[in-house]
């Protein structure tokens, strides 16, 4: 079904055009790759997988509770509106929220694909071009999977959030080659990864769990690439240049924390924007969720050397400074393990079902004979 028939509200424009600036770069040195980057490129090739085959699309999803979201996690919970909602309304609300959330994931994946392709074009070295080409393919697969989930299992999509769009625009418009890395690989992917992880670890629904676990397995490589490239490059920048990057990070973090909350959903239910914002501000659950969204960004920013006074102060203000001490390597290897473990469990369950089927057939044969 055409996506435009499924949008809960009309996207502002049918096609978004962001004018690009900066050069496309060719290199003639084909034999001078950095080992770490080439190893990541090899891993990118080895670990490709096909969402049409690896994910069990037969699994049913209740569109009115796709993630098993508890009441307390809904921003209207505890407000004067909650008591008035029927069970049917609550189901509708859950559907809209899941649709909004996964639609932002979907649009974000498209943005990631476009940024990765931009890096292929603009980065000067061949090893980084090669790696980024595999990431472009990874992001295409992710967009495909989220798109299928929304079309087939939820049956509703939301347009991209304005602020996510403007952060993507800023990231793509900038002529400095490191900006797609910083805006996309560090900020947007960092946020997305934290959100994926929270859902992966709390949902009891098998299909979204598979999707998130497998997508996160790839994202571990993407973050590693961004860190490697930026750590090397930021060592060579002047203080003034570093401060500019920090300002961009500070602004982006506040924007995503304060303006990416799904108030569009409540507006769709007739609740005025100011009131909707107040509810998401008051909700204890959402306050915690928003804080945890920074669990991947803060250690990454610190690791690549953007750790000036103003940035630290901003993180103190957001209450997330101490997250800088988390080990990204550990988080990433856990992401990979979780996906592999899920594969192993599914294989074991299939094996068990096969054995049961065979024994059942033998028993039936004996009984008949
Ligand atoms: Fe992705
Ligand atoms: Fe990614």
Summarize this, please?
This protein is mainly alpha-helical and 369 residues long. The protein has helices at residues 35-46, 51-54, 87-122, 126-154, 162-173, 179-202, 206-234, 239-259, 263-268, 273-282, 284-292, 297-303, 309-318, 328-368.
Q: Give a quick account of the main beta sheet: strands, pairing sense, barrel closure.
A: none
Helix content: 55-70%
Low-confidence stretches: none
The name of the CATH architecture is Orthogonal Bundle
Please report the number of helical segments.
14
Describe this structure in words.
It is a single chain. With 369 residues, the chain is mostly helical. The longest helix has 41 residues. It is 68% helix and 0% strand. Helix 4 packs antiparallel against helix 7, helix 6 runs antiparallel to helix 7 and helix 7 packs antiparallel against helix 14. The protein contains 14 helices and no strands. The protein is globular, with a radius of gyration of 22 Å. The chain has a single domain, classed as Orthogonal Bundle (Ribonucleotide Reductase, subunit A). Bound molecules: fe (ii) ion (2 copies). One fe (ii) ion binds next to helix 7.
